[in-house]
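Dear support,

I submitted the protein below through the web form. The confirmation email said the job was done, but the results page showed an empty box. After a refresh the structure appeared. I'm attaching both so you can tell me whether what I see now is the final result or a partial one.
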Amino acid sequence: MSAPPRPADQTKRNQAEFWNARQAAASDDKQLAAVMYDLARSTAAKAAGRDPNHPIWRALAEALHGWAVDTQRAQTGNAR
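What the results page shows now:
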C-alpha cells in the first residue's frame, strides 16, 4: 500500500496538468506562444513572491530581450 501523496507533490501534479492542458488546447503556434509566456510569468511570480525587484524578473526580461534581438537580426539578415 502506498502512502498518500504529499500536498506539495499534488500541487506540482495539478500545476503540470493545468499547463499541459493549456498547451494541448492551443489551436495554433501563436496561442501556444501565449501559453508559454503565461507559464514563464507565472513561474517568475511564484519565485519572486511580492518582490518586484527579485532577480528572477531581470532574468526573464533578459531572456525575452535576447530572443527578440536574435529574432530581429535573423529577420533582417544581420549577424551579430
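Response: this is the final, complete result; the empty box was a page-load delay. The chain has three helices and no strands.
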